[in-house]
Amino acid sequence: MTATLKIKRSTSTAAPTSLANGELAYSANSNKLFIGRPGGTTGDIDAIGGKLYVDMLDHTAGTLTASSALVVDASSKIDNFNVDNLNFNGNAIISTDTNGDLTLTPNGTGDLVLDGVNWPQADGSADEYLKTNGSGQLSWAAIPSGSFTLSDDQGTPNTDTFSTGETLTFASGTDITTTVSNNQVSIAYSGNTPAIYDNSGTPALYTGITAAEVRTLIGVDASGTDNSTDVTLAGSYDYLTLSGQQITLGQVDLTTDVTGALPNGNLANSSLTVGSTSISLGGTSTTLAGLTEVTVDNIQIGASAVNEIDTSSGNLVLDSAGGTVEVDDNLTVAGNLTVNGTTTTVNSTTVTLDDPIFTLGGDTAPTSDDNKDRGIEFRYHTGSAAKVGFFGFDDSTGKFTFIPDATNSSEVFSGTKGDLDINGLGLAGSITSIDGSAPTDGQLLIGHTANGDMELATLTAGEAMTITNAAGGITLAVEDATSLNKGVASFNSTEFSVSSGAVSLATIDGGTY
Questions:
Q1: Which helix H or strand E contains 218, and what residues bound it?
Q2: Tell me, which fold does domain 5-57 have in CATH?
Q3: pLDDT score for 410
Q4: In the chain, where are the structural domains located?
Q5: Which of 115, 410, 457, 473 has the fewest CB atoms lying closer than 10 Å?
Q6: Whole-model pTM above 0.70?
Q7: CA dist 414 → 72, 362, 396, 398, 419 (Å)
């Protein structure tokens, strides 16, 4: 349906002088739109818009534009703002006049608050400093004066009085350096001469050291490992020399006073007899003859039968030290078999299992979704190429899925879903399933674009239409239009014209002023 509606208009007069209530008029002279004020007289006319006002708003929201209205952006902001000699832009308040001051003056007894801290309302005295009371209030205060005493730890301490304003110097000594930086004093020892001193600072001599202390001093630990560096054992073992300082130990008998392993130790015997075979210690013989049983910790070899390894307690572990443990003949496991590995491969042509149920996805209930599929992956050849197929549970859809040409990416399968043939009933094409329960009279199967399924649906009548659902059939009927109900309507040919379904009205013209 087409129709033309025109309002009052003028190209020479800036504003109309009379309009009926709700009547519109537009002036191309002033670029304003007017309306007769509802409830007013013919002279009560309001400007409600027009090109003049639209042009003021026709710029990017949030951008300050000259001779235009202020329009904030979606965050209720504008990029900058000018007030007299001040410009507000970003985080800055800038004075725009030459050498202009920036004055912040609270009214009356109001405080100047910067970042939650109240500043003094008046200037302080010369040489005073700002201090805080810890509760957000700053005030002027005089620099305090005072002193304290410094003392060393000598037998008779040396003392000095340090007053505020003086400089405290940290002096270095032999092999000692001091560094002052970032409110920190660092004292470091830079020499390489160890020494043993008593409380007076004089090198001391010690006696009565135990055998364990001797090993510690000469750098030999309890296992016999020699870790000594600067300490040497001299003379007839009656003293130690430690970088020039002598420590008196008395006579040390290594055969009685020192216990534990010593470096480079020797055994009194040169051979070891096992059964009827003598083995040279340090030699290359590896043959042991005449043994009927060998026990190593809890492992017994040949304890009760030939070709048998028993454990007297605990588990039996076969460790190939990074290689492979092989069984070259039949293997029978009388108990349970647990394989704790990354990959289990069974190269058998026939596999027989008594268990009627396969459990996939772990031997305990999972505690989180690993987003992996569950099912059977199989390999086959089409005659021209090798393929991988999959059938099982699709974790992403929660449905049983069959993919004849699948791609396995970390146990997540993808590919085009295959057809299903159940006793001659084939489901193929893009429809993957049929949702819903058993159909009722008048229901239809309707496609579901989101998941490619077919769903049961019932047609529901809208306004001006009736639908009758019956077994095997649906009846649609259109109602006639009334003043209270939409429907099929006819048009008076004197007031309307209809052509190819299009309805036209006569032109309604408001005229000019």
A1: helix 211-218
A2: Seminal Fluid Protein  PDC-109 (Domain B) (2.10.10)
A3: 93
A4: 5-57, 195-258, 374-429, 435-505
A5: 115
A6: no
A7: 50, 22, 11, 14, 15
